[in-house]
Design a protein that fits this description.
Strand content: 15-25%
Largest sheet: 7 strands, parallel
Number of helices: 5
Radius of gyration: 19 Å
Length: 260
Amino acid sequence: ISFAGEMMRPNDTNILWADDDPCMVTDAEIRRAIELARQNNLKIILKPVVNVRDGTWRGFIDFRTPDKKPDVNAWGKWFDNFDKFLLHYAQIAKETNCEMFCLGCEMGTTEPFTGRWRNVIADVRKVYPGVITYNANHGNEEKVKWWDAVDVIGMSGYYPVGADMNKPTDDPCKVPNDSSVEGMKKRWAPIKQKLKFVSNKFNRPVFFIEIGVCSAKGNTSIPWQHPDKNTVYNADEQARFYQAVLEAFWDEPWFFGFAW
């Protein structure tokens, strides 16, 4: 169950949430969603995230001084606000016995602040007794240095395995698509090795807390792509993506599972 508080701009230290953000779901609505999930025999990951209202991706949150250096004071204010935001929903997760609590999603610019993250996680653990994870973006698995502070390594599994990334381009949109199951399993192999290394290093299981692909031609090369009216429907390619990733990871003892 995921929902978002908001920053007005990517360099705004304030985070609007709960009653301070009229665009956001209320606590009562979150509790009702949890209740409905329970009625349907579902286990629950409660996942509060921070979005930017002007449309900037949360991975670009940043605070800089006029001379373009990191603004330590602004980052400190933001982390203080982020801590309060998480603690509010960690309390709801505790009261409703959610099985897992996720500390946000794909905030790559925040991840180098290891000490700040460790403090946030320690504060959350004082409130919430269950399993804690964080959702890093695909490709950032080795950049997070504080995986040992959480219980599960959460990853967005939007790796462009439908494209032959050995071709001389960094843009998967320009690489010939190969969405065969065997082709995609072959490209999952080095990703698996990297994830296994991180899992072993921190002694934590890896979880694809986000994974999926639109039912559209070519989207296995750009699985992060949102629905687009110009794309061509292809459910078979989507199915092959799921088959390939299930076959690649299902039997790995260090792999925790998938959230579709």
